[in-house]
Amino acid sequence: MTARIIDGKVIAAELRARVADEVARVKREHNLVPGLAVVLVGSDPASEVYVRSKHTQTQVAGMASFEHKLPADVSQADLLALVAKLNRDPAVHGILVQLPLPKGLNTEAVVNAIDPAKDVDGLHPNNAGRLAGGFEALSPCTPLGCIILTKSVHASLEGMNAIVIGRSNLVGRPLVQLLLNENATVTIAHSRSRDLPGLVKRADLVYAAVGKSEMVRGDWLKPGATVIDVGINRIPKDDGKTRLVGDVAYQEGLAVAGAITPVPGGVGQMTVACLLVNTLRAACAIAGLPKPAV
Ligand code: NDP
């Protein structure tokens, strides 16, 4: 049996189209144009690619996009001043400071300075705390994308055994909270976990967010499991170029899993689409409108 391939490209495109419809509706009915401000400090090539893609997709969805590029040697005070200005700007409903920040800048202080109502990355402690408490919150985009991909396979996650490998604030921890909200039974594994293959074997849903090429092997998986691979790892090819692989040995996974996400073309596609969702939600909440239909 070969696993069903969960096509992040198609699912993300559908989600972006639904966001665009809702953006058009709030514009028509409430004269509201959701706006996303992205702050890029320095010139990390990977970050530049992400920021460009966020800018284009925001505009295609009918929202306003504001880009702020700052030099790598910007002072902490100047960066905080920009965040404060964006917090006050009524045209801006979402603020994203592209991470990682260059050395010398205090990431925690910058994230904490973002108005939690505009924190579309879901990293502010208010949002992380609200999510952990089971309250309405802006949640990090990659874990949101993982849930949507899972629900393209299973209408309900209730009672399913899930394992999340990785416990970062960006991916693993918020993903655990979202899975709990879906009434899954969740195990969270990390670098100190014992018998990881044994833990994975019990799981109906496997989320790998580690950053280690093809660490999760096919024979770790329970036959028929749904596998969501968050990892993005660049490995050298024979011709001197590089290729992307996930945290799961994909070919092996295909033979055992019931459904699996490819890398690229899986989770990565969903992250920006979910950023658009969060920006739309933030704009509606700030304007006192009901939650949009995405
Ligand atoms: P971090 O490095 O912050 O976290 C990695 C986690 O993996 C840690 O909790 C660590 O454990 C755990 N870990 C490390 N080694 C092992 C091991 N041998 N066994 C079990 N657990 C282990 O990474 P991120 O969460 O930020 O990202 C994870 C991956 O997801 C990366 O490949 C990244 O590129 C990718 N990513 C993809 C996104 C997308 O849009 N698709 C978005 C964000 C990230 P411990 O806490 O004990 O150190």
Provide structural commentary.
- This protein is an alpha/beta fold and 294 residues long.
- The chain has two domains: 31-117, Rossmann fold (3-Layer(aba) Sandwich), CATH 3.40.50.10860; 141-268, NAD(P)-binding Rossmann-like Domain (Rossmann fold, 3-Layer(aba) Sandwich).
- The protein has ten helices and eleven strands.
- The two termini are 34 Å apart.
- 44% of the residues are buried.
- The mean pLDDT is 97.
Short description:
By secondary structure, the protein is of the alpha/beta class.
Topology:
Elements: E1 4-5, H1 8-30, E2 35-41, H2 45-60, E3 64-70, H3 76-88, E4 94-97, H4 107-113, H5 125-132, H6 141-151, E5 161-165, H7 172-181, E6 185-189, H8 196-201, E7 205-208, E8 226-229, E9 233-236, E10 242-245, H9 250-256, E11 259-260, H10 267-286
Parallel strand pairs: 1-11, 2-3, 2-4, 5-6, 5-7, 7-8, 8-11
Antiparallel strand pairs: 9-10
The structure holds NADPH dihydro-nicotinamide-adenine-dinucleotide phosphate.
The site of NADPH dihydro-nicotinamide-adenine-dinucleotide phosphate has 25 residues, from helix 10.
Can you tag this structure with a few keywords?
single chain, 294 residues, alpha/beta, Rossmann fold, 2 domains, six-stranded parallel beta sheet, 11 strands, 41% helix, binds NADPH dihydro-nicotinamide-adenine-dinucleotide phosphate
Q: For the CA atoms, what is the radius of gyration?
A: 19 Å
Structural class: alpha/beta
Beta-strand share of residues: 15-25%
In CATH terms, the superfamily of the largest domain is: NAD(P)-binding Rossmann-like Domain
Rounded mean pLDDT score: 97
CATH class of the largest domain: Alpha Beta
- CATH fold description of the largest domain: Rossmann fold
Compressed to H and E, one letter per element, the order equals EHEHEHEHHHEHEHEEEEHEH
Number of spatially distinct domains = 2
Q: Please give the largest β-sheet.
A: 6 strands, parallel
Oligomer: single chain
- Alpha-carbon distance between the two ends: 34 Å
Number of strands: 11
What would the principal axes of the Cα set say about the shape? globular
Count of separate DSSP helical elements: 10
What is the CATH architecture assignment of the largest domain? Answer: 3-Layer(aba) Sandwich
Low-confidence stretches: none
In this entry the ligands are: NADPH dihydro-nicotinamide-adenine-dinucleotide phosphate
